Amino acid sequence: MVLALRKIFPKAPIYTLLYDEKKMGGFFKGAEIRTSFLQKFPKFLKKRYQVLAPLMPSAIESLDLREFDLVISSCSDFSKGLVLRPKTVHICYCHSPTRFLWDYTYQFQSRFPRLRKILFHYLRLWDRAAANRVDYFIANSKTTALRIKKYYGQESRVIYPPVQSIRIGQAAEKHLPRSLKLGLSDYFLIVSQLTPYKQIDLAIEAFNKLELPLVIIGEGKDKKRLEEMAKKNIRFLGFLPDEAVNQYYQNCLGFVFPGEDDFGIAPVEAMSFGKPVLAFRAGGAIETVLEGMTGEFFDEPAPEALADGVRRLLMNFNNYSSAFIHKRAEKFSEERFEKEIVEFIEKICYSENSL
Asked: Residue 55, exposed/middle/buried by CB under 10 A (0-12, 13-18, 19+)?
């Protein structure tokens, strides 16, 4: 999303609390990156960014943006709290109200509960006050818009994030790496961070019982536990570059999305290859997947429900049109995102100037 914004505003500097150029893989080469005082902290602290959470409100407020008339923040936690001039317009593209403070507060408080209760209370107060500094909210889905209204009491405009659209057959000439000893179209695929809230364990339990091939691409703190759960029909490939991931998208039978996400870009990426998606019926997937046309849903966060969804997807497999699924993915293209963002900003600038 930030890359798409940079295409619209190529000369605008990018402010961030922390920046690791190596992890960015050259995506922001040539961009002017301005960081907070947290960037000066030792590497071992910056890698454990959760430890820095109590300092992040101060860090975001310390960024000096007085030279700008318009500021666009990309926010899932702290960047909404920028302190700006009264005349500066702040548009916040909100991926989610701060999850660890609202939706998942009790899960995060499970360790050191007394200390965290005090800290979380302070951070929730700050987060709610910070939301009031935003002039205009953009939500990445209707699901997120409802949560912005619930937690921040603010209205928002829904503009879906950009998903790079892939032409069907673009990667067809390339084959899967030989290290994957599966056929070219007999496995299901997951591309995800391996963290508990992604619910990858549901898929593993289901595929353990189904004994169908499942390929999982991604890294995360939950990886070791998930690997220990999985049987031999499930392969973990870790992090892969985009070109390799695209090959797996191209050759999979279908894509599995077991968790609830605010939008969920990976299912749309799979659909851009014409692949049907099996998703949990919640969050942004409800807005992107068309039941019976671009995929199927399962209704309960249980392995049995997910396994039943796999069976239904296989049973209806011949009814899916790859061309139709791909066409659906185009509704979430970069071009559409850029057009809607520019129109939104122009409308705001016109209304602000007319006051």
From this structure: middle
Side-by-side strand order, sheet with 156-158: 70-75, 89-94, 136-139, 156-158
Order of all β-strands in the sheet with 188-191: 234-238, 214-217, 188-191, 254-257, 277-280, 295-298
CB atoms within 10 A of CB 302: 13
Among the listed residues 243, 222, 231, the one whose alpha carbon sits nearest the alpha carbon of residue 303: 231
Q: What angle do CA 31, 35, 41 make, to 5 degrees?
A: 135
pLDDT of residue 182: 43
Q: Is the pLDDT of residue 183 over 50?
A: no
Q: What is the CA radius of gyration of the chain?
A: 21
Contact 205, 303 (CB under 8 A): yes
Distance CA 342, CA 336 (A): 10
User: Of 88, 93, 94, 18, nearest to 56 (Cα)?
Assistant: 18
pLDDT, tens digit (0-9, with 9 covering 90-100), for 227-261: 999 999 999 999 998 888 999 999 999 999 999 99
- CATH fold group of domain 2-162+334-353: Rossmann fold (3.40.50)
Pick the CATH number of 188-332 from 3.40.50.10740, 3.40.50.2000, 3.30.379.10, 3.30.160.20: 3.40.50.2000
**Closest to 200 in 3D by CA, of 224, 226, 218:** 226
CATH 3.40.50.2000 spans which residues of the chain? Answer: 188-332
Distance CA 31, CA 33 (A): 6
Whether this model's pTM surpasses 0.90:
no
